[in-house]
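Deliverable D5.2: sample structural annotation.
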Amino acid sequence: FTESILLSALGGATGLLLTLWLSDGLKALFGNRIGSTGIDGPVILFAATIALLTGIIFGVAPVFGLSRIGIYDALKDAGNRASMSRGRVRMQDALIASQLALAFALLVGAGVMMKSLVHLTQVNPGFEVRNAVTVSLPLPEWSYSTETKRDFYERLFKRVKVLPGVVAVGGGDPFPFEDGNSRTTVSVEGLTLPSDMDLNPNMYEVSPDYFRAMGIPLIEGRTFTDAERTADENRAIIINQKFAQRFWPSKSPLGKRIRMGTGKDAPWLEIIGVVGNVRHGALETEAPLQFYVPYEFSRWMRLMMVVRTEGPAAGIIPALRKLIREADSNLPIDEPQLASAIIAETLADRRVAMILLGAFSVRALGLATFGLYGLFTYAVGQRQHEFAIRMALGAQPRDVIRLVLSKGLRVLLLGLSAGVALSLAGTRLLSSLLYGVAASDVPTYAIIAILLGGSALLASYFPARRATRVDP
């Protein structure tokens, strides 16, 4: 019992030292998702408690087993190093099989998460994320009216356009992959919609050069011009491809009219262009019905500015920050960020889950492999006399290796069988985080089984080779 407590204390202390060494890397990896969490008193207390409980539980269990051993039987078998009860053998096999099953389940979870993340990174968001910088420009209502807001944006856009390397400058609200959206009811001229059809497309208020700055393709027609920007009342609208295919699948929607709201006094807006579908909210969700109106008619006091450059956009961030401060030093703006960072942020939760699952699965694989190695090293030592007799009677080294590996194979098959069942149950909990891959992905299961099987057989092979070097 004392030995078990000592080993647990040393293991816990080593774990804390390792965590201190890795803490800076974890913070850099997970960013604000771990907040200000550090190695403090409660964390140390929790780790010490777990370590001591482990030592107590696994230190007391063998003591109860020893208390049931008769002195006469123990002394009689003292010289027989091969004596080991069937119950003890089965317990060892069950523990190693459990480690293999847990490692299999964790590796499968990490595997399907990685495959899902790869699929998501290949999804087209509907706009070009390379060579683009975005920055939020909220204008306080007490400082800006509709007219002064328009003047501020126009002056800022003109100054940003002349920066070296800038291709286009635009703005819009809301921005793709932001938490909120602006849905509104619309009526389509000449179409009577079924009463059960809820037509509430997403509305975006954008500047004339927004589509070029975002890299959203123009499918048909044209984008907004100065005519729509300076008109007293907006009469133009741009819809996305999904909107056009829903109501005009076999003909052009250009010239058709849409009215926002259900009131008959609302003006009709003419469709002047069709643009590509842009995903909103998350990469795994399909693009909704979308339409765009000029931002000058926005009811809101905020705009997300997008700047597209010829080359890498990171170099323009200092100049962009300086121009915004010169336009209004009191403006509470967010730090400019690359458009690619916005996409990366939408995948951050999945990436964190994949990294954590991967780390735990690699650790579980290591525990299972070393556990299996230790078990077979111990078992070979216990059966040393048996192997010597077999070899004295003519057994070849390959026969001894086959005998040891057959036991390892049985434990491996038991662990894999339990691991498959555990994985099928566990990956269902991850189904909401998966995209483009089934929770029971057969190739992933096969690859993990081969990986785990190879590690297990390798761990049992070296003790088997040692058994062949026994001197009869």
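Annotation notes: The mean pLDDT is 82. DSSP finds 14 helices and eleven strands in the chain.
The annotation will be released with the project's public dataset once the embargo ends.
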